């Protein structure tokens, strides 16, 4: 179960499928892990698909299910069960080839997850801890790294990029398009980049845009 959480997207149905357990047993195991403080549930904020009980859905949506995700509370557990546990027998024998192959192939996923969490915290600090909702958002169309609500009602949509290249304006355009498809009404877009931004983005005079570079994260160390 823990390996399935570490190696997947966190959606309950996918976790149960990868772990090869039924929903009843799976939920019982997850609740035990929650009590142990290892994982936590993150509820979906997607609006209900039906506006009224007897509404007929499009054929493509009839099998779609709004569901929560399950998250590790500590990045170390995601690392351990995603990289070490699947190869612990081989590692105990001194065989590390497959461990390193998997690590090199998938470590960027763990790195991105941690960068995303830090970005959420940085955004909260920027708004002086006045965000009443701050976390991921996913729906039938897309997934978003940050969808936050300020106590005054403003909505902030964020994208986190931990790659070794600068973020350019096309990334902002993609985010705007995704928001439009998902029907999100955004007051401010926030981009977080490990490797900085293009000059076009830096010079953009857009009051609805926030840019955060690696140097900005130093405030979290105080």
From TrEMBL:
<dbReference type="Pfam" id="PF03008">
    <property type="entry name" value="DUF234"/>
</dbReference>
<protein>
    <recommendedName>
        <fullName>DUF234 domain-containing protein</fullName>
    </recommendedName>
</protein>
<dbReference type="InterPro" id="IPR011335">
    <property type="entry name" value="Restrct_endonuc-II-like"/>
</dbReference>
<dbReference type="InterPro" id="IPR004256">
    <property type="entry name" value="DUF234"/>
</dbReference>
<feature type="domain" description="DUF234">
    <location>
        <begin position="80"/>
        <end position="164"/>
    </location>
</feature>
């Amino acid at each position: 179960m823990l390996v399935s959480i570490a190696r997947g997207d966190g959606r309950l149905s996918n976790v149960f499928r990868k772990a090869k357990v039924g929903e009843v047993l799976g939920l019982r195991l997850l609740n035990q892990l929650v009590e142990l403080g290892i994982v936590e549930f993150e509820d979906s904020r997607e609006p209900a698909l039906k506006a009224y009980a007897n509404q007929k859905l499009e054929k493509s949506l009839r099998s779609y299910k709004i569901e929560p995700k399950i998250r590790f509370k500590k990045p170390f557990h995601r690392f351990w069960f995603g990289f070490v546990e699947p190869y612990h027998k081989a590692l105990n024998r001194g065989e590390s080839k497959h461990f390193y192959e998997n690590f090199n192939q998938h470590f960027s996923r763990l790195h991105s997850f941690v960068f995303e969490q830090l970005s959420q915290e940085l955004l909260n600090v920027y708004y002086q801890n006045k965000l009443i909702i701050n976390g991921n958002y996913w729906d039938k169309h897309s997934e978003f790294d940050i969808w936050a609500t300020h106590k005054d009602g403003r909505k902030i949509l964020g994208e986190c990029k931990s790659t070794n290249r600068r973020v350019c304006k096309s990334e902002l355009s993609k985010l705007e398009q995704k928001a439009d498809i998902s029907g999100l009404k955004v007051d401010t877009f926030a981009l977080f980049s490990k490797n900085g931004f293009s000059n076009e983005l830096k010079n953009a005079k857009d009051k609805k845009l926030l840019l955060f570079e690696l140097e900005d994260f130093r405030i979290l160390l105080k």
